[in-house]
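Why does residue order matter? Because the sequence determines the fold. Keep that principle in mind as you read this record.
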Amino acid sequence: MTITIVGVGLIGGSLALDLRKRKFADSIIGVDTSLQHQNIAQLCGIIDEADTLENAIDRSDLIFLCTPVDANCSILPGILDRIAKTSKVVADMGSTKASIAAVSKDHPARGRFVAAHPMAGTEYSGPLAAIGKLFDYKQAIICDPELSDSDALSLVEEMLKVLNMRITYMNSAIHDIHVAYVSHISHITSFSLALSVLEKEQVEENILTLAGGGFESTVRLAKSNGDTWAPIFAENSEYIIEAIDTYIEKMNTFKKLIAEKDTIGLKALMEEANKIRKILN
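Structure:
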């Protein structure tokens, strides 16, 4: 099995590490617009070699798209053109799916494409952020599986099982609604909190010296790469705006109860929120 990974950062690099270690891949080719990322990935043994996208596609059995979601959408049609009428498979690892579903749905080689989203990651980016076991026991979503050829779907399912992931199947649009609430809004909240505190820090020096574990865990995602997340927010804007409106509504409820010093109301609201424990546990 020869695999090409387009975008050898956190996700692509972590895929490479585990797929080689678990003997799913015999050879891994890396493709990246950053020559520095390609060189680091090769020096660190994440990939076996680097090549151009066209050469890598021709030499590979399975191609993973691990670039920002807008870039995935841009390059997928050309890849499908190149692998049409072959046994090759291409899968994207992006966090949004409606846009890539739209650009691929009418392509004659649509069956060779599998839309996948491994729900795993960290706040770090680049090949040096790649880590083993990143995907173990995490959720993986495959979107619109009925549009993929059975052999292509089976190969990607096999790969996800090698990574010890739990597989769920969804429609692309439904997927984007769900991730807006459980993933994307978390990042926006973290970015917003970081900006609020940094703005206050300019007025009241050393406020960050008081930052404890609660702040650090909440703001951790604000370290995430803007090159990755700006396209995600733009691609999923409709559902993210819906999630933001819901979030603001809840924030305003807290604001009202705090302004009224309504401890009973606040306690009831927090007890309602505590129910999330049963779901997460």
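The radius of gyration is 21 Å.
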